[in-house]
Amino acid sequence: MSTRLIALAFLLAGFVVCPAFAAPAFRQVTVAATGDLPPFEVSLWYPTGSTAAPTILGETPAFFGLPVIRDAAPAPGPHPLVLLSHGYGGSWRNLAWLAGTLAAKGYVVAAPDHPGTTTFDMQPPDTVALWRRPGDISRALDVLLAQPALTGGIAPGRIAAIGHSLGGWTVMELAGARFDADVVTKNCLPVFGAIYCKTFAAMGVGRDAAAVAALEADLSDSRIKAIITLDLGPGRGLTPESLAAIAVPVLVLGASQDVEQDTAEKASIAATNKDSVYLAEHLPQQMTQFSLVPGTLHFSFMQLCKPGAAALIEEEAPGESIVCRDVVGADRDAIHRRVGDTILSFLTGAI
Predict the structure, then answer these.
(1) Statement: residue 234 has pLDDT above 50
(2) What is the pTM of this model?
(3) Domains of the chain
């Protein structure tokens, strides 16, 4: 799961003008509150015919940005849709590179900031409602289908969901996987280890009977026709029976190496590729593709770091520079190209 990170003023996303060239459009919309469900922001990338000058999205002293055209008119659809779910303590910025890659190939991409578990909205364990994460994706989907003017229109049968870290757990729940919160809580230390247990406690897992029941409920959305996980966690909390019953194609991509234990403890990260292996073992084989991506650690699936970013981040937030680490000798830009190509190939056959 992603560490709580980048909540520093010098790391906030910004926009700067860049020379004009083809780029996807970008806008942000608000999903309104419904009953006791809070509002949240959704970032959208979508195809456009606009030739307006792009701006750079998310450029900071630590991270590279990407060219987009703000609020441009969408190209006529219907378009395939990919919904992105960030990790614990993350945000839409973490997978913006992937959103740009997909939008350049004609996809609409929607990335909500999950209330209570996003960078600038982290709730305490006694109030966080982890089970609402899949519902955030479904609520965002409701808005996009109801308002085609935002995107040029969505093809209802061509909808996929991608999640990194806790976002991977989120999208698996949307596919019909069921989480055994009671067993996870009772057997946490021997099965998962201290780091996972600490993270579960921070997310309110098993805090009371109501939370357990809510996490164990059916949170699926039949409108989503394909799933991709990027080094997900906590996959081993999903029941084998529910995984075996999933009826949509799933691409499972895991990190080739786990983060070192001492570093993980320092950064309070619970992440292991055992979760991805577990998924691959229990999902229907004929519907599943699986690989551990060479050169990757847990955060290799996130945005590109600038030279010197690790030192800059470490100075401001000790322990957080781990977000810029990959396997020694690996190049994150090359990793992104490989992952992007793999995802595009999978989606072409899946939706």
Answers:
(1) yes
(2) 0.92
(3) 9-179+220-350 (3.40.50.1820)
